[in-house]
Design brief:
This is Glycerol-3-phosphate dehydrogenase [NAD(P)+]. It catalyses: sn-glycerol 3-phosphate + NADP(+) = dihydroxyacetone phosphate + NADPH + H(+); sn-glycerol 3-phosphate + NAD(+) = dihydroxyacetone phosphate + NADH + H(+). It is found in: Cytoplasm. Its EC number is 1.1.1.94. Helix 8 crosses helix 13, helix 13 crosses helix 14 and helix 14 runs antiparallel to helix 15. Strand 1, helix 2 and strand 2 form a beta-alpha-beta unit. The strands form 2 sheets. Strands 3-4-5-6-7 form a 5-stranded mixed beta sheet, sandwiched between helices. A two-stranded parallel ribbon has the order 1-2. The chain is built from 15 helices and 7 strands. It folds into 2 domains: 166 residues, NAD(P)-binding Rossmann-like Domain (Rossmann fold); 137 residues, Orthogonal Bundle (N-(1-d-carboxylethyl)-l-norvaline Dehydrogenase, domain 2). By secondary structure, the protein is α/β, with parallel strands linked by helices. Bound molecules: nicotinamide-adenine-dinucleotide and SN-glycerol-3-phosphate (G3P).
Length: 323
């Protein structure tokens, strides 16, 4: 459900893994391009898609009798869409979005459950999975997380291909916090890059970003090991280091001196950290967790601080043991 970059690339994974795939696109021209030319004319436009993907513009046509419903709309739009869709009762749902809902401070699997769908039916797929690389069938690993390890295993087998290697996890909340928070940290790393700083600065931000992500995750009951894995460090490193990342690129525009409006105009696709950073900060405050990098990202996005001042303020913080 959603034919943006990741919805399209994940449809490709599912088709390559031998599933019959229906892909819901909002726009007729997107569906037609996929069905007649095996190309999405709006996202990943140079990629030839497998013939096994059938695109539709009616949500009901995509959802009818679906065994697995893959949710690939941006996180702040998930609830409004779910409330309109007729999700088959026997289906399982896979959440792909990486964000925290603004109004509720819920993770995406929690939003799904909040609309009345049992959390036993909800899975999360997350990891270092930049859609542009996956669509070229470059090898990557990922994590399929569910409360029930048997379900996680079953679904991981359904999306395994020669280029996509899914591990399993029962730490749903940890995987989701890793995925949502890395976007805010990537904004900070992008700012550092845009300011002209090198590998030492960026590695320092990544590592301390992981430390604050782990603190938040643990406060929410996550397994600390998750943050050393694909959904934590793996995704954080891929996002912070790749020019393909929309979040890192958005941060880079800010670091080069553009304001949020101009950075938005220069961006293609959704940079989830821009919308979720404030929610992550609010969630951290609710649980008494210190997240200085996310806090400064929020200040920069709100125009209260420049990227350069944000970095200077972080550097001036009191020193203390690393752990
Ligand atoms: N692109 C990636 O590399 C990647 C990888 C892993 C996870 N994700 C996550 O997947 C989610 C989707 O990202 P994406 O990369 O596909 O974004 P995108 O910007 O490429 O596409 C967004 C899609 O959502 C649709 N959309 C936008 N507003 C909508 C609304 N109100 N209702 C319904 N549909 C709407 C658009 O039409 C489009 O199909 C995000 O949470 C992102 O963090 C992306
Ligand atoms: O392009 P980004 O910044 O949304 O990152 C994409 C994926 O989440 C990387 O795993």
């Amino acid at each position: 459900m959603g034919a943006g970059s990741w919805g399209t690339a994940f449809a490709m994974i599912m088709a390559d893994a031998g599933n019959e795939v229906r892909l819901w696109a909002r726009r007729t021209e997107v569906a037609e391009g996929i069905n007649t030319e095996q190309r999405n004319p709006a996202y990943l436009t140079s990629v030839e898609l497998p013939t096994g993907i059938h695109a539709v513009t009616e949500a009901d046509a995509a959802l009818a009798d679906a065994e697995l419903v893959v949710l690939a709309v941006p996180s702040q739009q998930l609830r409004e869409n779910l409330l309109q869709w007729q999700i088959p009762e026997s289906s399982r749902l896979i959440s792909l979005a990486k964000g925290i809902e603004n109004a509720s401070l819920l993770t995406m699997s929690q939003v799904v459950a909040d609309t009345g769908i049992s959390s036993d039916r909800v899975l999360v797929v997350t990891g270092p999975n930049l859609a542009g690389e996956i669509a070229e069938r470059q090898p990557a690993a990922s994590v399929v997380a569910a409360w029930d390890p048997t379900l996680a295993r079953e679904v991981s087998e359904r999306c395994r291909t020669r280029y996509f290697r899914p591990y399993t996890s029962i730490d749903v909340v940890g995987c989701e916090i890793g995925g949502a928070t890395k976007n805010a940290i990537a904004l900070a790393v992008g700012m550092g890059h845009g300011l002209g700083f090198g590998a030492n600065s960026l590695a320092s931000l990544i590592t301390r970003g992981l430390a604050e992500t782990s603190r938040l995750g643990e406060a929410l009951g996550a397994d600390p090991h998750t943050f050393a894995g694909l959904a934590g460090m793996g995704d954080l490193v891929a996002t912070c280091m790749s020019p393909l990342s929309r979040n890192r690129t958005f941060g880079e525009h800010l670091g080069r001196g553009h304001d949020v409006q101009r950075a938005t105009e220069l961006s293609r696709g959704v940079a989830e950290g821009v919308r979720s950073a404030g929610s992550i900060q609010a969630l951290a405050e609710r649980h008494g967790v210190d997240m200085p990098i996310v806090g400064h990202v929020v200040d920069v996005l709100a125009g209260r601080q420049s990227p350069r001042d944000a970095i200077s303020t972080m550097m001036a913080r009191h020193t203390r043991p690393e752990r």
